[in-house]
Design a protein that fits this description.
alpha/beta, single chain, six-stranded mixed sheet, 699 residues, 21 helices
Length: 699
């Protein structure tokens, strides 16, 4: 049963309210055209019907009132009175507020009863189909969170398929055994009188049948795995595309914010837009929307002049604010420009002195570019008084914080008397990032491709060494050079006679070259935030998963450039300390990723296994210093794995640590009786405790 009966209604209602809001603003601009009014009536009717299905009486009544206001204008003609537009917008705001209350999972939402009945306090049955009949057949709406779950599940499925493919190789070994058996049996001459097959002949027949069936099964399984891998990849790609929304979804809200700001300040402003068809990740659009809302309000509060001042300056009385959306390779630029007075540089200078961002003598010598940088630093306002639109100096703070959050670039251009232009350049997606894969010699890491200027082959003799760090010449200038392994806190190869592969990275912090063992090509990776329990490294921005489910570092370009400039990392790598090998056995992707990140950051070498059976096979191939084992796994569980290792003369020497969600005292006793050296409940999991326990077991 669906525990959230409003989930589909919320999606549909948000979409309908956005379209209604955009349509009402169109009525205000262009008059009550018959086709526009008819479209809005259909949207209001659809929303009313959907609200009644899920028993949201207030939203249904507001939609009905909206229909009543629009009905007299159904035949079109003339502009809506200002009071009529204001009332339509008020009704839309009321419905948005009511819809926002439904986003609270514990919210108590009064409901309307069916006609003739008493009000009901219960939400509608999950079997009820929210939405109007006219849309259900041809429209399927999903929420971004649902798509994130689908992406995570498809990634997990890909990992499991990779493991299954490895297991399928066992069939090839069995087929070879069957072939050897058939050949051995075939060398034995059949005995008997010929009227009846001898035991050797029958064995030969069985061996041949076994070999044939294993060969057929291997081929069928390999073909099936390959087909399912293609299908899972297609599902993942489709889900990623579905997460991308057109930039046009921002426009109604921005136009409404612009209209309200203009009315509050007595200005006339026209909103224009272009490029709304470009698509971006929903999370990126959400952050961009918050920043652009402040930018368009600032355009009104600080840029567009009052009608009288514009006439005196020989400008049209109505100002213009334009938002252009442009695709630039893997990124998208939002360019918001106005035709107002431009930045008041003297007011910025005075505000910077008032805020003590710069001393008065220094402020007097600041040029336009330096004043713009001071403005973007945040906390400055050039407004003479606090109003609903401006005066607190937080608008550009939001823009700056958004840029930092999205690893975006911000630029400001202004011309006195002609206007101002703000440019925000953001990645298309925060989840799928094109990267360059580099092998550091100790690990494979991903560098965002849009930060890569070029790659070079650099002889060791070309690197200038000093106490302050290493540099090399790039485009006629010296730039910092650092082995990427050093940036990750790991030893790089000793002094070398052959050339480095170097990646030149450009970020807001500057330009630097990172030395790597080899380049592995490009790949689009689905990034995930670092687990909360992992101590962040300045050069690491996120993690991704490789084809086998192992975590892969996605590096932060700014962190890399700063690390290279500071010459961070070990300087002498000639005698790297051996890293104790640890085998993590857990069928949970999240737990494997978390534990591997913690252990590798602490200097351990880590191997992974997704089952007890796979772990036993790996343990017999190489020695480990420690087993870290989950209990609840398909097939052999953690208790059984430990019992198997304790029964083995070699494996019993390796201590085993149980990390499990089973927190009961009986489970703890059972684990220790099975032979575990220590026991940690996941509910009590702590990075410090884990590392302290491991150090106590193996040092």
């Amino acid at each position: 049963m669906n525990k959230d009966p409003y989930r589909y209604f919320r999606v549909e209602a948000r979409e309908l309210l956005e379209k209604l809001g955009s349509g009402v603003l169109e009525l205000e601009r262009s008059g009550a055209a018959a086709e526009t009014v008819a479209r809005l009536l259909r949207l209001a009717h659809t929303l009313k019907g959907a609200a009644r299905v899920v028993r949201q009486r207030e939203i249904a009544e507001s939609a009905h009132s909206l229909e009543d206001l629009l009905q007299p204008h159904r035949q079109g003609g003339g502009a809506l009175p200002g009071a009529g537009v204001a009332e339509l917008l008020r009704l839309l705001d009321a419905m948005r507020g009511r819809l926002a209350a439904l986003d609270e999972p514990q919210a108590v939402v009064p409901s309307a009863a069916p006609a003739g009945g008493a009000p009901s306090s219960q939400p509608p049955s999950a079997a009820a189909a929210p939405g109007a009949p006219e849309d259900q057949a041809d429209s399927l709406r999903v929420e971004v969170d649902d798509l994130d779950v689908l992406l995570a599940r498809s990634a997990e499925a890909g990992v499991r398929l990779g493991a299954l493919g490895k297991e399928a190789n066992a069939l090839d070994r069995l087929r070879r055994v069957a072939t050897t058996l058939a050949e051995a049996v075939g060398q034995v001459r059949p005995g008997g009188n010929g009227t009846r097959a001898s035991p050797a002949a029958r064995a030969l027949g069985f061996a041949e049948t076994l070999r044939t069936e294993l060969q057929r099964l291997q081929r069928t399984l390999a073909d099936g795995i390959e087909a399912v891998e293609r299908d899972v990849g297609a599902v993942r790609e489709a889900a990623e595309q579905m997460r991308l929304l057109p930039a046009s979804t921002l426009l109604p809200g921005l136009e409404r914010a612009l209209r309200d700001a203009a009315q509050a300040t007595g200005r006339e402003v026209r909103f224009e837009s272009a490029g709304g068809e470009h698509r971006l990740d929903a999370h990126v659009l959400g952050a961009v929307r918050d920043a652009l809302l402040h930018v368009v309000r600032n355009a009104v509060g600080h840029g567009i002049e009052l009608p009288e001042a514009r006439r005196a300056a020989r400008k049209p009385p109505a100002g213009r604010v334009e938002l252009r959306v442009e695709r630039r390779g893997p990124r998208v630029a939002f360019v918001c420009s106005d035709d107002g007075r431009g930045l008041d540089l003297e007011a910025i200078r005075r505000a910077a002195v008032r805020a003590r961002a710069v001393a008065e003598p220094e402020a007097a010598s600041c040029g336009p570019d330096e004043l713009v940088r001071l403005l973007l630093r945040g906390g400055l306002s050039t407004a003479e008084a606090v109003t609903e639109v401006s005066g607190r100096g937080v608008g550009l703070d939001v823009l700056r914080e958004t840029a930092a959050q999205l690893n975006a670039q911000v630029a400001v251009r202004s011309e006195p008397g002609r206007g101002t232009e703000f440019e925000l350049v953001v990645p298309v997606s925060l989840s799928s990032v094109p990267t360059l894969l580099a092998d550091t010699g100790a690990a494979v890491a991903a560098i965002p491709l849009d930060a890569v200027r070029c790659t070079l082959r650099v002889a060791d003799a070309e690197i200038a060494r000093s106490a302050d760090g290493d540099t090399l010449v790039f485009e006629g200038k010296g730039i910092p050079f650092l082995p990427l392994a050093h940036a990750l806190g790991r030893p790089a190869p000793a002094a070398r006679s052959r050339a480095w592969s170097a990646v030149v990275v450009q970020a807001a912090a500057g330009v630097a070259a990172l030395g790597v063992e080899r380049l592995l090509g490009t790949a689009n990776v689905v990034v995930r935030p670092l687990p909360a329990l992992v101590d962040p490294q300045p050069v690491v921005g996120a993690v991704a998963l490789d084809g086998e489910g192992n975590p892969q570092l996605v590096l932060d370009p700014d962190g890399l450039v700063r690390a290279a400039a500071q010459g961070e990392g070990p300087r002498d790598a000639r005698s790297p300390a051996p890293r104790p090998p640890v085998l993590i056995v857990d069928d949970s992707l999240t737990t494997r990723m978390l534990e591997q990140g913690i252990l590798e950051s602490a200097g351990y070498a880590v191997d992974l296994a997704t089952s007890g059976e796979e772990a036993l096979a790996k343990a017999r191939q190489r020695p480990y210093s420690l087993f870290i084992v989950d209990v609840e796994m398909p097939g052999m569980n953690g208790f059984e794995f430990i019992q198997s290792t304790r029964a083995d003369a070699e494996l019993r020497k390796t201590p085993a640590l149980l990390v499990t969600s089973l927190a009961g005292e009986a489970d703890r006793r059972r684990g220790l009786q099975a032979g575990a050296s220590a026991y940690i409940a996941k509910s009590e999991f702590d990075q410090g405790q884990l590392l302290e326990t491991i150090r106590g077991l193996i040092g």
